[in-house]
Design a protein that fits this description.
Largest sheet: 5 strands, antiparallel
Shape: elongated
Radius of gyration: 31 Å
Number of helices: 9
CATH architecture of the largest domain: 2-Layer Sandwich
CATH class of the largest domain: Alpha Beta
Number of strands: 5
Order of helices and strands: HHEHHHEEHHEEHH
Structural class: alpha+beta
CATH topology of the largest domain: Alpha-Beta Plaits
């Protein structure tokens, strides 16, 4: 099929992709309400060093320093999953409640992300209130450094060590890339769906529109009456 044929088909059914895009635009404007200001969002990052202390054996040479560093890498991976879990969130929530703040464990778990880089565990916390964010971050840091052995008693009970190595400040977060591209992506997908529907309609409803359609059926065309 030639490119001109594609354009003729799209010109014939132009109202399908156009209408689908218009409906998508109306629905998106109603649901997203892009004219309304978005609620503020803030983030704060904490960096921790997680590992085990090497054994101190007098007058003996061991490779414990090497294995200590190696163990730290495994502990970082494991502890990253613990921080994202419900048990850790509940411990932070209980610590906050003892200080007079009520923050649900689900809120803590849902607003906490972790990452690992060079044996450093980074915990990023998000919230809409900068003061509450600072309070939650302090509770997370205290729970990490003081109660880490409660979550991994076999490895951290005797030789475990968790240190806060960096405490970032509260940073305001602007709209994410997903939020900025949400409406344009919806319109593009609606356009593609409309184009696909056009060719489906053309396939399911074969009609003679041009002399090429007749010639494809083996009919000789002697003359044409132009549209204009």
């Amino acid at each position: 099929m030639e490119i001109q044929t594609y354009f003729r088909i799209l010109k014939r059914w132009w109202w399908i992709p156009t209408g689908l895009m218009a409906l998508t635009l109306i629905f998106s404007l109603i649901t997203l309400k892009p004219w309304q200001p978005r609620p503020p969002a803030y983030a704060m990052s904490l960096s921790f060093s997680v590992g085990v202390r090497p054994q101190q054996l007098p007058d003996e040479f061991t490779y414990d320093g090497y294995y200590t560093a190696l163990s730290s890498e495994y502990l970082i991976d494991d502890f990253s999953e613990i921080v994202k879990g419900s048990e850790f969130a509940s411990a932070v929530s209980q610590r906050l409640q003892a200080l007079g703040y009520t923050v649900a464990p689900g809120h803590i778990q849902g607003s906490t992300q972790t990452g690992e880089l060079h044996r450093i565990l980074t915990v990023t916390i998000y919230d809409s209130d900068p003061n509450r964010l600072t309070t939650i971050a302090d509770a997370v840091a205290t729970t990490m450094t003081e109660d880490a052995h409660l979550f991994m008693p076999r490895l951290l009970e005797d030789q475990g060590a968790v240190y806060l190595v960096n405490r970032g400040g509260v940073v305001a977060i602007g709209p994410t890339l997903k939020q900025r591209l949400d409406l344009p992506l919806r319109l593009v997908l609606a356009l593609l769906a409309g184009v696909g529907l056009v060719f489906l309609m053309e396939y399911l409803m074969p009609r003679v529109q041009t002399r090429q359609d007749l010639e494809a059926l083996g009919v000789s065309v002697l003359a044409e009456i132009p549209e204009k």
